Amino acid sequence: MMVIARKRKKIKLGTVILYTVLIVSSITCLYPLIWLILNSFKTNSQLFNDPWGITFSPVFGNYITAWTSGKIGTSFLNSVFVSASSMLITIIIASMAAFAITRLKWKLSGAVLDFFLLGVMIPIHSTLIPLFLMFNKIKLTNNYLSLILPYVAFALPTSIFILTGFMSTIPREVEEAFIIDGGSMAGVFWKIIFPLSKSPIATISIFNFVSMWNELMFALIFMSDQNKMTLPVCLTRFKGQYSTNWTVQLAAVVIMVIPSIAVYLLLSDRIIESMTVGAVKG
């Protein structure tokens, strides 16, 4: 009885320590974001006089100035279009490729998967100069395709890897029953495999959207037209334009951060499930 009681005490103490560490870690991660949001509603004088305090008279004009005068609104819509388009194209191509590799019987399926995974070894920015020379030659600079194409190309290897790990775990009896009932292979993909792959699709959507949304170098080099610039590029120039108006800069940063957080919150409930399935199978 004494041994059992001691084990229970140890378990309770360990649980308390674990949750304490998790709470402290969460506060450490969340506080900069909370500080950023709180100070974006202040004036410059309030920011410098009390940077850690809470204002009871929020200044919404900071967001209006950032959105209109700083042209954050136009760049925000450009980023939404480029990131959403790249993400959707990646999902469709990667899911089709993973379906062909895992569900269809052909000799080179393993070699094709290895070929796609070679892309993981290539640093994305090592292709910056060759792609710029190529796009400039075919007059594709200042075009959304100059961003969408490399974003999709470099998102495919990891996306295909995650999807193949999941699709290979789906029982073949499901699609065989569908085909016996008169279904086609296209129907197997769109009506069975693709809907069942919502968890890994959510995972690659989070990873790809965040990386595409925050990407700077390609957008900075390939886009010189101010009306087509994405949000990260606009923020670099926005900083120089409003170098003394710190609260407006903070409001612009909040606008930049919100979409990534929103996408993660919407899809995060499926990320652990899909990663676990892929890890077990892989």
From TrEMBL:
PROSITE patterns: ABC_TM1. Keywords: Cell membrane, Membrane, Transmembrane, Transmembrane helix, Transport. GO terms for biological process: transmembrane transport. The chain crosses the membrane at residues 16-38, 80-101, 113-135, 147-166, 178-196, 202-223, 244-267. Pfam families: BPD_transp_1 (PF00528). InterPro entries: MetI-like, MetI-like_sf. Residues 76-267 form the ABC transmembrane type-1 domain. It is found in: Cell membrane. One of its GO terms (cellular component) is plasma membrane. Its main location: membrane. It is a multi-pass membrane protein. Belongs to the binding-protein-dependent transport system permease family. This is Putative ABC transporter permease protein ORF2.
